[in-house]
Amino acid sequence: MKILKFFGWIFIPYIMIIFQWNKIxxxxxxxxxxxxxxxxxxxxxxxxxxxxxxVASVDSAKTTTATAAESQxxxxxxxVEPSIEDRINNSIIEAVKDKTNMDKDRIVELQVNDHAGxxxxxxxxxxxxxxxxxxxxxxxVRHGILMQSDDVFKVLFSIxxxxxxxxxxxxxxTDAY
Length: 177
Hints:
This protein has 177 residues and is of the alpha+beta class. It folds into two domains: 2-48, no CATH class; 84-170, 2-Layer Sandwich (Alpha-Beta Plaits). It contains five helices and three strands; from the N terminus they run H-H-H-H-E-E-H-E. Mean pLDDT is 79; it is low at 52-66.
């Protein structure tokens, strides 16, 4: 039983402090509370960290013999630059992730229109329809949409070709009656 109590204090002190409060002294309460707060902060920050690291793949090396004519290096292919639509799409995904908190695709429709009456030649106008995250209250949903809109606008207007942008947020709801 002591071993379980020991592991409880190591891994879930924020729960152990509640059950052991009357049994520990003043020093124990101080250190236990401090350790519980630190552990709780670590748990919360790790729960919000959704970054995934890509797994690198290693190709097996092949050895071959080549003649002098074959050993000449081939001209390197030019790197293909992503289109403006791909850059905008990737920027939006980078800003607000590709899925909502209900596992729906974030971007419903993305239109990148050419110059349409703006002062700068060759600029783009972006129209994006996106799914919003669900939350507990209407106010929290609205606040979340405003914060995510701010993030999307920042990345969109960091692209030099983008002159104007419009965001349309969708949130499927169910009538309670």
